[in-house]
Amino acid sequence: MKKIFKYTAILTVLASVVTTGCIKETFPTGSSISAEQATSSADALKSMTGAIANYAANANWSGNSVHSFYGYPSLCVVREAYGNDFTIMSNPYGWYSGEMQNLSQNPTNTYIQIPWLIYTKLIALANDVIRMNPDLDAIIDANKGYVGAAYAYRALCMLDMAQMYEFKANKYTSKDDIIGLTVPYLHENMTVDYAKNNPRLPKAEYLEKIYESLDAAVLLLDGHAPTTDKTLPDLAVAYGLYARAKLYEGDYAKAKEYAELALGAGSFSPLTQEQWTSTTTGFNDADSQTSWMLCIRTSEESSVVKTGIINFVSFMSAEQVYGYGGPGAGAFPMVDKRFYDQIPNTDFRKLSWKAPAGHELEGKNKFVAATEDYPGSSALPEYAALKFRPGEGNPDDHQKGSATDFPLMRMEEMKFIIAECDARNGDASSLVDIVSTRNPEYTCTLTGTHLIKEVLLQKRIEFWGEGIVWFDYKRCPDLLTINRGYPGTNHSEAARFNCDGLAPWFNVPINGYEAQDNKALSETNNPDPTNTVALWVE
């Protein structure tokens, strides 16, 4: 425990995960770039679009001690905590407990406010670029990639928000007049008066706004990639976002079409077993990951890295000793036991978690090398996460260990979108094509609903910890739901929920303070789902 306290002495930990109150956000300083500079200078726009990627990697707040939010990757962990396949063995500091226990969803709760603030700030940064380049035909070639990236990043955030906040009918909370409503449209030319009375849009109408952004992105990014480091969307990513949106819409023919376009617009290959299980670069180094399309990058100089403990590695790498998720604090990220048991032992992805004693895979996991402070595999409990390695395989030094990259889109997601679309037409061949790269023995003879569920199961295995699959849970409540309570479960007693259909906390309430400022939201917010589902008791 010694290293964790070195940092918590500086950064005070909240006493409870259900703290409420308004948040003071620390935003990047405002741009002094003029409209003329932004339309004539590629360097100016490079700086402005770079601010989007930087904020996604380093978003933080002052005036509070919420350690479980550290840019976009933290939103992915929140989505994992809402879902079924992720758990934490013990949680002495309480981070993500509220999300797992359905205790932090009150509209004025800190933990509800922050995702809204991160997304809307990212959209605002993208809108700054878009607003300064109103005429697509007038944008010079040197600037097209940057403006296109801004349109694509805005679309990414808009799509995430639509899926998070759309109210869907469920058996636990009801509000018939808001079914199908998503979020207000935050465009580049908003006025103060507009913002104060900006209603939630129906799903179909909001999707049209997303498609408008993606159409602009595709137009501008074709032949004009903004960067080579994968921190900003290129043409492949824009097509990939279109595929995500069409999947959300339920237009499976178009979802497949755009997923294929995404794959064709870049040079990608599925991750190999060696890449996946590497103890030095496994899921932490974009340059070594042949499948990554878009990512977050951090370095030793990144603000989230310098904190020591307020970063993705601190929470999601079980092998580091200085943060929350490792042997120092003991809040180990783990996989749901029943989910783990469904994975064939011949699938190398099962090595993403420590095998239990006596299991066929015991002794086959790779672990970061033991050091003076990290005793190695003996320090980790069964089912502990090994997917996200500390940087350079260094479990001791937070500046090296936490300086990692995080995937926002991988080519495998496009493969699974194609697989689901084909499965809905009774064709399992696309599923076999991608899963056989993980499990050479894989075959599939399932049909109908069973085949679609199999696609979603394989996708859950593929993207555990990446914040992707929760959207499938909300999109397909007839096929996926919460079942954490069962004999032998490794979920905490306070998180053992079994839901009939859609879990009520999947309809995430909009930041309540936003609803106070925007009168159009005053009567249309999602209901508080807290304590609406009874706990399973063995």
Describe this structure in words.
The protein is mainly α and 538 residues long. It has a domain at 299-403. 40% of the residues lie in helices and 4% in strands. It contains 21 helices and six strands. The protein has helices at 2-8, 35-40, 42-58, 72-82, 97-100, 110-131, 141-165, 192-195, 203-221, 235-249, 252-264, 273-277, 303-306, 312-316, 337-342, 398-401, 411-423, 429-435, 448-463, 470-475, 512-517, and strands spanning 24-26, 60-62, 86-88, 292-297, 333-335, 405-410. The longest helix is centred in the N-terminal third of the chain and has 25 residues, at 141-165. The two termini are 32 Å apart. Residues 1-32 have low confidence and may be disordered.
Brief synopsis:
The protein has 21 helices and six strands. The chain is mainly α and 538 residues long.
H and E order: HEHHEHEHHHHHHHHEHHEHHEHHHHH
Rg is 22 Å
- Number of separate helices: 21
> How far apart lie the N and C ends?
32 Å
The biggest beta sheet is recorded as:
2 strands, antiparallel
List the defining traits of the structure above.
538 residues; disordered N terminus; mainly alpha; 40% helix; two-stranded antiparallel ribbon
Fold blueprint:
Layout: H1 2-8, E1 24-26, H2 35-40, H3 42-58, E2 60-62, H4 72-82, E3 86-88, H5 97-100, H6 110-131, H7 141-165, H8 192-195, H9 203-221, H10 235-249, H11 252-264, H12 273-277, E4 292-297, H13 303-306, H14 312-316, E5 333-335, H15 337-342, H16 398-401, E6 405-410, H17 411-423, H18 429-435, H19 448-463, H20 470-475, H21 512-517
Antiparallel strand pairs: 1-2, 3-5, 4-6
Helix pairs in contact: 3-6, 3-7, 6-7, 7-9, 7-10, 9-10, 10-11, 11-17, 17-18, 17-19
